[in-house]
Amino acid sequence: MSKPRFFVDRPVKFAVDITGPDARHIKDVLRIGVGDIIEAVDPEGTISDVEITSLLPDKVSGRVIASYRAREELPEVFLFQALPKASKMDDIVRQSTEIGVTGIFPVMTERVVVKLESEKAPKKVERWQKIAAEAAKQSHRTLIPSVNSVLTWMGALEKLREFDEIIVFWEEERGTLPYEVLDPAAKNIAVVIGPEGGLSDKEVLDLKGLGAKVVTLGESILRVETAAPVAVALVLYDLRKIKKFPFSQ
């Protein structure tokens, strides 16, 4: 059985203190006691087996009994997701985190239906970041993906200039598959997904102007909450094959 995993905000050496909601979760939900083992992941990506030595109301302490580094990471894959309706973004954040995305940029595009008021946007992003953190723990990631502030279309285009490669999944593209265009030398890759109504022709032209490569998800038209995690999974899978990266620990 896998050990519960928690993220800590400083490098782990010999001892670990976990506070706040995670400490309460360890004691009150998981019912972990003194002598039990958990995993702690620090900002450097070091994974430590920690034996619990003390349980206080708002702090759990433990001693490190073993540490190891995570294996070499694939190139970073970031999702630029046009905002979908209702709570679909929750599912997209959760599933993309489980699959292996490095970060997520919510984007307002021409066909986005959601009217996100500026004063409510930070609370939405905070909620999505919490979902990413929980999904990262559950799926035993070695990092918590960053969920960034909502971008305008022009803001997204400016941010995309920072990436080595841009892959756009568009329902109007029928022939090109991701593995045919992925650059094995890219260190960071942006994956762009439109909203329920798709990206407009002008938006796709804007992306092509940045050197983006437009690809297909196949013959089926997928729901946006399905398309995003499938796109991330396809890119990561193809990168593993191209770079001959192992599929198991």
Give your account of this protein's structure.
This protein folds into two domains: 65 residues, Ribosomal Protein L25, Chain P, CATH 2.40.240.20; 167 residues, SPOUT methyltransferase, trefoil knot domain (Alpha/beta knot, 3-Layer(aba) Sandwich), CATH 3.40.1280. The model has no long low-confidence stretch (mean pLDDT 90). It is globular and about 60 Å long. It is of the alpha/beta class. Helix 2 packs parallel to helix 3 and helix 2 packs parallel to helix 7. It starts with a strand and ends in a 7-residue tail after the last helix. Helices cover 32% and strands 25% of the residues. The strands form two sheets. Strands 8-7-6-10-9-11 form a six-stranded parallel beta sheet, sandwiched between helices. Strands 1-3-4-5-2 form a five-stranded mixed beta sheet. The longest helix has 19 residues. Keywords: Cytoplasm, Methyltransferase, rRNA processing, S-adenosyl-L-methionine, Transferase. This is Ribosomal RNA small subunit methyltransferase E. It comes from Candidatus Aquicultor secundus.
Topology:
Elements: E1 5-7, E2 15-19, H1 20-29, E3 37-41, E4 46-56, E5 59-69, E6 76-82, H2 88-99, E7 103-107, H3 121-138, E8 146-147, H4 153-160, E9 165-169, H5 178-181, E10 188-193, H6 201-209, E11 213-215, H7 224-242
Helix pairs in contact: 2-3, 2-7
